[in-house]
Write a structure and sequence with these properties.
Blueprint (H helix, E strand, L loop, with lengths): L1 H78 L11 E11 L23 E16 L2 E10 L2 E2 L1
Antiparallel strand pairs: 1-2, 2-3, 3-4
């Protein structure tokens, strides 16, 4: 019985050895395929990395040339003082304050409130209460001129 057992064990080992050898061949073929694909991926990534490095280098060169151009423009602009668009034109404003009166039969529009001074007009139409004319300009780099003419109640102030 032990002899049969020994023969059965020997037969199993003999049958398993070619299976292990086949597995080793398959394993080495898979390993070779994996290494080939890994080398292909590495070469692809190296090519991509080199392309990106070239793009970064060209972008840096472009940025440096743009910065140099901006600095030269800035130096040129700072060499001559900018002229103000209104250097020889004075600032001018006209302020009109008026009213429109439409009273039927001379009645007051709000009970308890009487219009002040000479602004009470019993007629109908437009009235001009006060007008201001303002002129302002730079006289020289250190002085500024300002003129305000106000017309109220037919008087100039």
């Amino acid at each position: 019985m032990s002899n049969r057992l020994a023969i059965a064990m020997a037969a199993l080992c003999a049958l398993a050895a070619p299976a292990q050898a086949a597995q080793q061949d398959d394993l080495s073929a898979l390993r070779a395929e994996f290494e080939q694909k890994l080398k292909t991926l590495q070469s692809d990534y190296e090519a991509r990395l080199k392309a990106l490095e070239r793009r970064v280098q060209s972008a840096e060169t472009t940025a440096q040339s743009a910065e140099a151009t901006a600095q030269s423009v800035e130096q040129t602009a700072s060499a001559s003082p900018p002229a103000a668009p209104s250097a020889f034109n004075p600032e001018l404003s006209l302020i009109l304050q008026g009213a429109y009166i439409d009273r039927a039969g001379g009645e007051r529009p709000i009970t308890g409130f009487m219009p002040a001074g000479g602004h009470a007009d019993n007629g109908r139409g437009f009235t001009l209460n006060e007008t201001e004319l303002v002129l302002a300009s730079n006289i020289d780099p250190y002085s500024r001129g300002l003129l305000i003419l106000a017309v109220a109640d037919e008087e100039v102030r």
